Each structure stands twice: as C-alpha cells, then as structure tokens.
Amino acid sequence: MGTAPGGEPVELRVHGVYGASAETILDHPIVVRVAGDRHAGFYRTRPGTGTAGGAAGVAVEAYRWGALTAGAAVRTASMLLLVPFMLGNLAIWLRPTSTDRFGLLGALCRLLAGTLTVAFTLAVVGVTLNLVGWQCVPYVECRADRPYLSWLSTMPMGPRLALLSLIPLLALRVIWAIGARSARALEGFDPTPAEPKSSERTESLSTPGFWHDERVTFWLRQIHVGIGAGTLDASLLAGVSGGGNPLGPLLFDAAAALVVLCAVLLCLPAPASQAQARHLPRLLWVITTVVTALSLSYAALTRSVQPTAGQLPGYEAAAAGLTAAQGVLLVTIAVVTLARARANPTGAPPFLRGLGTPLVAALSVSVAAAFTATLVFRVADQLDRGNIPDPIRPNPPAIGPLEPPVAYWWAALAGLTALLIVAAAAVATLLLSRRRRRAMAERVVAHDFPHVPPYAARRLHDVRETVAKSHVTEELGPMLVAFFLISSLGLATIALDLIGVGPTQLAAQLSGTRGATALLAAYVTDAGIWVISLFVIGLVILGYRSYRSAETRRLVAVLWDLGTFWPRTVHPFAPPCYAARAVPELAKRVTALAAQGPVVISGHSHGSVLAAATVLQLPPAALPRVALLTHGSPLRRIYARLYPAYLGQHALCDIGERLDWRWHNLWRDTDPIGGPIYDHHRGAQPPSDNPAANSVDVRLRDPRALTIDPADTVPPPVERHWPYHTDPHYQAAVRDLIDRINRPGTDNP
C-alpha cells in the first residue's frame, strides 16, 4: 500500500500553513496512513471506502506535516518565548545573495544572535541578582510581608547572590531544552547525507545536505551556553569583587574572556568534521563549567560585600553596552547587505532593496528588548508596590529605591514611538495605494467580465474590491521602511544609555526645569512601558490559549510554519526547523514512488515552497518521472522577493529546467497570497527557450461567473486562496502533467 501498484500515477498533495487534515486534503472522510508517523505522514483513502477527489486513474496521496509545528500544546505555547531567537535565525536567509565573501554577513548575524542570548541572561540577572538580591532584600520595607524574600536577608550578600545565580542558570537550561526538544520528530530525518555540505558562503537549496543542521546547531548551542554562563559569571563577580581580594577581579577577567572566546568562535564557520564538532564543544563545555563553578564558589565564600544604594555594580553599564553593541552590529549588517545587493543584483526586485536581513535583525532586537524590559519593569513594579522610581516622581522614603536600567526606559520609549509611526505608515500606505489598486482591479474585472447585466453590478463591485484588497501584499514596503528608520534613529540613544541619562532626565535638562516637560516625558515613557508590556502579556495569553485550545494552537502554528522553515544556522535556541524533516522525507517518498510510476507533486500555498525545495533535492534518476503542480503559491510573489538568494529567479528557473518544464502554476487575481511564478505582465523575458516554459502559469478567473447558473441557486463563490483542487482546471493540469511524463521529449503542454 506504500507505493503505486503497477505503475499507477500518483498525485502527492502537500498542504500549506494552518495544518489541514488529511481528510480535507483528500476530500474523503476515511483515510489511513501509508508512510511516516503521527508527526508527519503520508495518507491515502482506506481500501474499499471509495476513491479520493482526483483525476480518473490517478492515486491521490496527502502529505500532512502540520503536526510538526502544531502537534503538541506545550511545544506550540513554549515557542512564543523563542520569537526573538526565531527572528534572529530568520534574518540571514533574507540576504540578497548566497555568496558571502569571507563569511562576513553570516558572522555578523551570529554575533547579533549572541547578543540576544546576552539580553536574555541580563534580563533574568536583572530580576534575580539586581532587583531581588541587591536592591529589595536589604531594605526592610521592600521585603515586608514577603516571607519568600525575608529569609534571604539572613544571608550575607555574597552567598545570597550566589544562590540567586542558580535561577539564571536554570532559565538558560530551560530555554536550551525548549529549543532542543523534539529533535527526533522535527529534525535529523537523514543525518548522514551522501555528500558533505558545501560552505555556507555558496550554499543553495540544491546543495546536498542543505537541510541537515544538527552539527551546526549542536556547535552553536555550546557557544551560546558559554555566552549566557559567562554573562552571568561576570555580572555576579562585578557585584562581589569589591573587597580587595585579587581573586575576584581575576575570575571576572576569566568570565569576560569566556564571553570574548565565544564571540570569536561565532565568527568562525562551524567545524567541518563530526570529530571536531564533538571535541571542540566538549572543551568549551569544560571551560564554561570550571569558570562558572569557580565564580559561584567565590561569591558563596565572600561575606564582606556591603550593599549600596542603586543597582548592582556594573549592571547599568552592561545593559548600555549591550545596546551599543547591537546598534553597531545592525548598522554594519545594513552596510554589508547593501554592498552585497549592489554587487549581485537579482532578477526579481527584493523587498526594501535587499534590506530584509537588517530589517528582520532589527525586529529580533526590538522584540527581545520588549520581552526583557517587560520582565524587569513588571517585577520592579511588583516589588516596589506599584511605584517604579522616576526622577520626577521619587519613591516614598519607606520604600526601597528599585531602579531598572536606563536602557530599558529608552527601549520602552522607542517601542511606543515605533508602534505609532509604523501604524501611521500602514494607514498612509493603504490610503495612498487605494487608487492604484482599484485601477488595477478595474482592468482585471473588465477583462474577465466584459458584459455584465445591470442586476450583477453589486457583485461586480464586490469582486473588484476583493481584487484590490488582495494586492495589499505588494504595498508593505513603506511600513517596513518606517520601522527600519525608527530602529536606526533609536541608535541615537546609545550614547545616552552609556552615560546613564534616561528620557525624563534628558527632558528636564533640555527644558531647564523639572516641570511640565519632564512630567510629560515621564508619562510618555510610562505609556511606552505599558504598551510593550501589553504586547508581551498578549503573547503570554496567546500561549495560554494555545495550550488550552487546539484551534488557537493551529493559528499560532502559522507563525512557526513561516518562521521555522529555514535551518538553524544562526541561533540554536530558535524553534526547530520542520523542513529539516519534511523536505528530505518528501524527497525520499517521491523517489520511491517515481520508481513505480509518474508522480505529480501538488503543493498549495506554503506547501508549494516545500514542493519546490523537494524538487531541488531529488536525485537525477527520479526527475524524469516527476512533475510539479503549484496553486495559490507565494513562490514568486513573496519568497522570491524575501529570499532572493535561495528562491529567486535563478532558483525558479533551475526547478523548471530540472523538470523539463513539467510544471503548472494555478493562480487567481483574488488570491492575497498566491500569484504567477513568472511575472509576464511586467515584461519579463521567457525563462527558457523551451516553449513549455511559457505555459507554467495558468490564470484562473475568480469567480467563475457573476450571474447565477440556471441549474444553481446562488452565484459561484469567490474562492480567493482556497480551494484550488476543486476547480476543473486543476484536474486538467494533473492529467496534462501525467501525459507529459509518459511522453518524454514533449515540448508543448
């Protein structure tokens, strides 16, 4: 039952995001799994229960991979904590060209990913060591009526901070476990590729072993653990090394050296051999363990540390230095990306002139800042009994002076500013593009429905509006530009962070008074704090709903379907790459089926991306028996522009050439996601001399008619993005592709 008996043609359907059921994909209520497992499997109708909805004489099979991202409640909910890491990993794949001279862009993105781990560690350190251990516990009023904190006051400062340091270590271990979980289900489908993977500087989707990222992830995971542990060690030692003991500064230097060593390792490519990939991390693990154990032991034995007012020594400087490092890295990434884009122009104009890498990198930093600032401010607010200290509104004398870092105040203000400006840019974009989109929609409906009876005028108007709204996707540029500019302008606060000047202090100094201007700055900053807090709280609620509701879990999984498609080559704590299993598994299944008879890989929406990646990984012997059918496909409209280095014009032509142009792509003007593969409407040259190359795109009129058919009671619906497989053109395309497989050498469809 696992293969097509007797050379029977097979139509292999691959669903898109949102995880459609096998019954929905096959249009049949009774199905059985014929290959794979509960995480990702291949399904057919159960024998003796009828046939699936497909072309006559063609066996229909469904590949359901949605459970890889939405199968477990805990897994899906926990992924929300990994959003910054996911965005950091995604950034490198948006680069304008796969050629990375000296591996510079990859090294910069890995360094920026390292700062995300530092930000996570500093946030937990800020809550435990800074707010609780250093600022709250020494003050009677802060720990009053809090027995869970009062017992810490009996301990000297050194042992107290050493004990609290176990919480950041535990948090680091938890985030490691979340990022590394389900490796057997989501990754490592075929851990031993036939050929070694090429250098990351010249890789492509057709590279053997492209999807096998276990070695790189394992290597990076050890480095990021070293970065997190070194950050904790340095923060702890900065607070307890003021007693004149030379061992403290020596250990502090060792912790700083550990972080620097890990940063240097991030600039180097991953070890090429399995032996190096195992031995070097073990050595780094030993160094990390020794430095951390010595740091904790030194702090536990130090009993002469006297608490002082304000923050944990060195913490403010660490937060400001982190912001400065992230700003410098973002600017450098933008400069390098622009240089690469100009030197290697692509066929399709990429979003933001190829600035997708710095844009998503800036987004990862912004989301990480929102997470960390929310955590620190909400804990400070709770400990300070609702009165976060501020120069304009100082705490009452009876409450301890809890002080979050100045960098987090600026992050809150920048978050509010970015939200307002991006929202304004989105509204302006929609309004300014409305006339252009309506004019385009008018041309479409005039072509499709030249003669419309008067009673169908209202329906014609609705169709025209649907077409206009479906082309909003192309208008996202100005909104993204606004976000990138705000992120860049936010770098101006780096110098103020370094000298410890917050928004309220700056307003007071500029106005020369502590009156209305400074008070307004305080209120605006507080608003920014609550805006980013509500954003993070909303994600927490969404995660809780994902745990309780399967429907919400599937909705959240859409984000992971889009964000975890690419291997983890930048941040190892990002959610696992499901394509590391899906693509090799599809390639293996298609190869086995092609050995028995013709195979048409049918990919809908994001499933078409998986199908295209599968074609690029198929062995040459299987390709003559394979054809590709895509529908509602974002390959050209979105992916070629977001990922020009991997799915640009060259890759799309490579797919067609490998299949001898046995490829049909069905699309509708009402579809907000899918579109043509080759943009003939903009004067693009034919992708190949083969006449069949010009027949790839098949435009479907939607709706099929404006008026009610005499045999029906309602007019045909506007299908938009789903379904395609119920359209008669779909079955005709499947039959045509099978005929072309059976008649090799045919140039015309």
Commentary on this structure:
The structure is a single chain. This protein has helices at residues 22-26, 67-70, 73-78, 83-91, 104-136, 140-143, 147-150, 157-164, 166-180, 183-186, 214-240, 247-266, 274-301, 315-343, 356-383, 406-448, 457-470, 477-489, 494-498, 503-511, 516-548, 550-563, 579-594, 606-617, 635-642, 644-647, 649-658, 728-742, and strands at 10-14, 31-36, 41-45, 59-64, 599-604, 626-631, 663-668, 697-700. By secondary structure, the chain is mainly α. It has an eight-stranded mixed beta sheet, with helices on both faces. The chain is globular, with a radius of gyration of 29 Å.
Unreliable parts: 1-6, 191-199
Strand order of the largest sheet: 2-3-4-1-5-6-7-8
Count of DSSP H/I helices = 28
The gross shape turns out to be globular
- Give the total of beta strands: 8
The separation of the N and C termini measures 31 Å
| Fraction of residues in β-strands | 5-15%
What about the largest sheet? 8 strands, mixed
Average pLDDT taken over every residue? 81
Structural class: mainly alpha
Q: Roughly how much helix do the residues carry, as a percent range?
A: 55-70%
Gyration radius from CA atoms, angstroms: 29 Å
Labels describing this entry:
disordered N terminus; 749 residues; 28 helices; mainly alpha; globular; single chain; 8-stranded mixed sheet
Question: Care to give the gist of this entry?
Answer:
The protein contains 28 helices and 8 strands. The protein has 749 residues and is mainly alpha-helical.
